[in-house]
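$ ./design --mode recover --in tokens.txt
reading tokens...
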């Protein structure tokens, strides 16, 4: 789905490029990172900033010469331009007994946008919770999937639907999943909205108890170009209306349909 974009690069890199790495080149890169890379340190505890700075300097001094500065990093927020293109279908075969059907979606709404809270609610109604459209219609009513859910990458405006299905149910499951995506534009109930908002609030309150949350929110602010807090997100999702979600739904387009199946054949795919 993102093969021609930086987002599509595996975090561990590519195996075929390892052969080109030399000990000299690797050492030079190591020194370059120590010299030039920006380091973000996050600390939570009962201490002052001066105490933490002294501790960090001692810890890192053997590696590099460090200077601590309070910097507000200005990041230009990314933009997304809507591009109409055909839906890509990818079928892979392996020695498996169960099929995996995934649908990749793109939205023009990103983390820094005012409509981002509505995108959060959109994902929750579509596939983020047990009351979501995918879970109810694909798994419970049609009994076509072992699981059916969606998750989103807000910095990229990407949503991924994943489901585990019987291989022979591919066409039927795909049709119902696409039907739920279309339904998001016109068929959202107040119950779906309120249940989703409450579910999101519960998630945020739980995450606010974790020390890592503040660090992640800061990383998102630097990458996305907008500062948000847990409290602000809770307030924002509470204000999302059905009309807001439907407006976001009209920005969401199917990009790629992926099907992992057995090695017997792909005649029906």
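writing sequence...
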């Amino acid at each position: 789905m993102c093969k021609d974009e930086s987002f599509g690069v595996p975090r561990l890199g590519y195996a075929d490029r390892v052969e080109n790495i030399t000990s000299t080149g690797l050492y030079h890169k190591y020194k370059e990172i120590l010299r030039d890379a920006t380091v973000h340190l996050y600390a939570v505890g009962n201490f002052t900033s001066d105490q933490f700075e002294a501790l960090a300097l001692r810890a890192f001094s053997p590696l590099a010469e460090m200077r601590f500065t309070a910097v507000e990093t200005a990041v230009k927020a990314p933009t997304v331009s809507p591009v109409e293109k055909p839906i890509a279908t990818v079928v892979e075969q392996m020695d498996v007994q169960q099929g995996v059907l995934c649908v990749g979606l793109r939205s023009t709404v990103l983390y820094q946008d005012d409509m981002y809270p509505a995108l959060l609610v959109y994902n929750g109604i579509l596939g983020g919770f047990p009351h979501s459209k995918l879970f109810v219609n694909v798994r419970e009513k049609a009994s076509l999937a072992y699981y059916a859910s969606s998750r989103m990458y807000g910095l990229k405006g990407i949503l991924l639907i994943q489901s585990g299905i019987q291989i022979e149910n591919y066409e039927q499951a795909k049709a119902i999943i696409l039907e739920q995506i279309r339904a998001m534009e016109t068929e959202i109930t107040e119950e779906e909205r309120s249940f989703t908002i409450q579910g999101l609030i519960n998630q945020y309150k739980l995450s606010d108890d974790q020390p890592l949350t503040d660090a992640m929110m800061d990383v998102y602010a630097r990458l996305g170009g907008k500062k948000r807090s847990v409290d602000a997100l809770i307030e924002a999702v509470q204000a999302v209306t059905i009309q807001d979600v439907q407006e976001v739904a009209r920005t969401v387009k199917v990009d790629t349909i992926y099907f992992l199946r057995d090695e017997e054949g792909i005649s029906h795919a």
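exit 0
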